[in-house]
Design a protein that fits this description.
Radius of gyration: 25 Å
Oligomer: single chain
Number of helices: 9
Distance between the termini: 50 Å
Order of helices and strands: HHHHHHHHH
Shape: elongated
Length: 227
């Protein structure tokens, strides 16, 4: 099973944000730690599976669409050869090629079926075939979501295991750990997309922090209304 890091990062960020938002919301409502764990784990498995399934369906649908368009272009090359050759000529004329050079480009591209087909897919339709396996993408999303999404819950799990009821202290450790996770995941994302790792880490940290703050005050406000 091959892990795709772009899907892993996507799942990681969403998992950390949504799980910590639950933690912050429950803490804002002053509910017991057991509620945090119940809601947190329910979110991990249910939302993680939902994201993975959605990613699988989206990747599979895109691959099927690209394959359908490729078969269509193959038929046109076989049955409308002159028209397709003229389309290649027009594409490269717009790129600035002309006269003998233009004809050489058209001749070279149309002399090899795969090159001709790939050129039509990219230049005419703007489609590039994705070699990623939809199942691998969905598993990468699920693993990232659950692995990083578990981090905000770990302090509460540890405190509960050792029998200490100190929600505020556990929440503080949860904040520190999830902020570190946000920043680290953001840095990895920055490295993958070849942007500033520090800047990407800070951006991810800010996004996660805003989600957590909103969730905390929603929980706090609901607690005031109910009590």
């Amino acid at each position: 099973m091959k892990i795709h890091f772009d899907d892993f990062i996507y799942g990681s960020i969403d998992g950390a944000v949504t799980t910590f938002a639950i933690v912050a919301g429950v803490m804002g409502a002053s509910l017991p730690a057991v509620i945090i764990l119940i809601l947190g784990f329910a979110n991990l498995f249910a939302d993680g599976f939902s994201m993975a399934a959605a990613n699988y369906q989206a990747s599979k649908a895109r691959n099927e669409f690209v394959e359908m368009k490729r078969r269509q272009e193959e038929w046109e090359i076989d049955n409308l050869e002159d028209q397709e050759r003229e389309e290649i000529r027009e594409i490269y004329r717009k790129k600035g090629f002309k006269d003998e050079l233009l004809e050489d480009v058209v001749r070279i591209i149309t002399s090899k079926r795969k090159v001709w087909l790939d050129t039509m897919m990219k230049e005419e339709l703007g489609l590039i075939e994705d070699e990623k396996n939809p199942m691998h993408s969905s598993v990468s999303t699920f693993v990232g979501f659950n692995l990083v999404g578990l981090i905000p819950l770990i302090p509460f799990m540890i405190f509960m295991i050792i029998g200490i009821e100190m929600n505020s202290e556990a929440f503080l450790y949860s904040i520190v750990s999830v902020c570190s996770a946000f920043f680290l995941v953001g840095m990895i994302k920055g490295k993958i997309v070849k942007k500033s790792m520090v800047h990407s880490g800070i951006n991810t940290l800010i996004i996660g922090g805003i989600a957590a703050i909103v969730a905390y005050f929603v929980g706090y406000g609901l607690n005031l209304l109910i009590s």
